[in-house]
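Suppose you are handed only two things: the residues of a chain and a line of SMILES describing 2-acetamido-2-deoxy-beta-D-glucopyranose. What would the bound structure be? This form records exactly that question and the answer produced for it, so the two can be stored side by side and reused later without any lookup.

QUESTION INPUTS
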Amino acid sequence: MNTFVRIFVLSAYITLVLGSSVRDLIGPEYYDSLTTQWWGPPGEEDKASTDIRPFKVKFTDEMITDLRYRINNRRKVTPPLEGIAFQYGFNTDNMDYWMDFWANKYNFTEREAYLNQYPQFKTNIQGLDIHFIRVTPEVPEGVEVLPLLMLHGWPGSVLEFYEVIPLITGYCEHNDFAVEVIVASLPGFGFSDGATRPGFGTLEISGVLKNFMHRLGYEKFYVQGGDMGAMTLNQMVTLYPEVILGYHTNYPRTLGTKALMTWFTGAISPFFQNAVVDPALADKMYPLTKVFLGIMEDLGYMHIQATKPDTLGVGMSDSPMALFAWLMQAVSWASRRANKSKFDGGLHDLYTPESIIDNVMYYWTDNKFTTSVRMYSEHYNLKTFGTNIESIPTPVPTCTVHAKDELSYMPPSMLSIKFTNLLSSLSLDNYGHFFAWEAPEVFTKYVLEALAEIRAYHARNKTCDHNEL
Ligand SMILES: *[C@@H]1O[C@H](CO)[C@@H](O)[C@H](O)[C@H]1NC(C)=O
Ligand SMILES: *[C@@H]1O[C@H](CO)[C@@H](O)[C@H](O)[C@H]1NC(C)=O
Ligand SMILES: *[C@@H]1O[C@H](CO)[C@@H](O)[C@H](O)[C@H]1NC(C)=O
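ANSWER OUTPUT
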């Protein structure tokens, strides 16, 4: 394809789309409602407090007793078919091990202390209590501290970042900046409230999180996320580019029309394919049939969560065993698809049993399964996609990193249509979808490098301005 034509089309597109503000594109009334609409119980608008209250995870004796009772009185599971590991879902021959571990070996007191090792808070935004961790680094005077909002995904939790937090906030003289992290539970997850009425999708969550960061005193900030955190942040950097200084994601994705057209165009012939993707990475995107059959094989969970979350939630909130199997089958699959053929789904290779149960506790303790999966229903619908937000570009400087076993791959040729200031887009030969949880040190290294790159971009952008004047 003629490079000149591509550049011309792209710049004409950017001029046209950016000529109107995002507010105009998605509708001014709707845009404004994102930061004003009340999502809490009706009639409590006047009682809303702006306090930031300290919070601690509490595993009460009553909850533990009830949980152990349910685990110990579980029914016998149906054994897997001969020779089958995780291909039909969670391998039930693992179940006694995990249920015994949870009821008898998992030390609730010790893990509660582990989860409470960082300062945690709650604050109410638009009717919803948002739970978060905030860790401020100690730095020599004059060192710039960058506020970074980090968002987890499903079926994860803030736990994904627990080993990252001390690394990323530890000031190192090698960098001339330090990072203050704000790790929030997505609304409806962990200890954050879910909405009480329909329509609370990723655009609405973005509005709430923008208010949330302002409540904490940040006018401008950086953001990082994977999975549903990234789906939210994609919207947030599009809706509010003026408050977001930079975006790092380990789930680089865009479903904009032009990006998808680019992907499909690559399927026409090797010539087009080479224009779309580095040949060394082409097997992650082509042939399309392979990609779409993979979706059919593995994304059933997403379809049910996106359509009938409440029905699914009945069993998940009643049975620790069902909840565990549903969440951990997804963790196994998203971490290493090839480990379907492994007896334990590869879970033991990547995560400690304690951290696996910790993560499940974020769903069990406050009964948050149903509210968490409603996020899929509120995202994958015409209300969200009808705004065409996926096709609206954002100038927020963006760096991406793609782990080898990540669910899907999108090359810079697609990403840069959405992220017009795509500074870097790395592809690694290791790690999976839960990159931060699986490899906290490597993950932290990439996030810090991205922040340094984004700061350098801002410094350059400033200099250019002066030169033009
Ligand atoms: C659980 O951990 C606490 C705190 O470390 C410890 O005092 C207690 O003995 C442990 N309980 C068991 C059953 O190991
Ligand atoms: C587990 O996944 C890794 C990475 O995809 C793969 O190299 C390994 O062969 C898998 N192991 C099994 C037994 O499937
Ligand atoms: C670059 O600088 C200009 C002028 O200060 C500003 O309007 C623009 O938003 C900056 N770009 C980014 C992506 O921050």
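WHAT STANDS OUT: The domain at 25-468 is CATH 3.40.50.1820 (Rossmann fold). The chain is about 50% helix and 10% strand.
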